[in-house]
Amino acid sequence: MGATDKLGNAIDDAAGKAKEAAGRMGGDRDMQAEGQGDQAKAQVKKAGENVKDAAKKLMGD
């Protein structure tokens, strides 16, 4: 996984956490759910990158 991908995933995750917290504090359940969705999306992207990395290692790159 490239450093840019790692950074992007970390930013997406942090933004999702912030959005979730803002929604929780403001009583906005839609925003809270959107933040949770953003975090889940970042986790899926991270998992995909980990699979790519594992495949590259298996192929000897």
Describe the protein in words.
With 61 residues, the chain is mainly α. The chain has one domain. The chain has helices spanning 3-26, 29-59. The longest helix has 31 residues, at 29-59. The model has no long low-confidence stretch (mean pLDDT 92).
How would you describe this structure in keywords?
61 residues, 2 helices, 90% helix, CsbD-like domain-containing protein, CsbD, YjbJ_sf
Helix count, per DSSP? 2
The total number of structural domains is: 1
Quote the distance from N terminus to C terminus.
12 Å
Q: What is the residue-mean pLDDT, rounded to a whole number? A: 92
> How many E-type strands?
0
Order of helices and strands: HH
Region (Disordered): 1-61
Biased composition (Basic and acidic residues): 14-32, 46-61
Pfam families: CsbD
InterPro entries: CsbD, YjbJ_sf
Short description:
With 61 residues, the chain is mostly helical. The protein has helices at residues 3-26, 29-59. The protein has one domain (3-59).
Task: Show the helix and strand layout.
Layout lengths: L2 H24 L2 H31 L2
Helix pairs in contact: 1-2
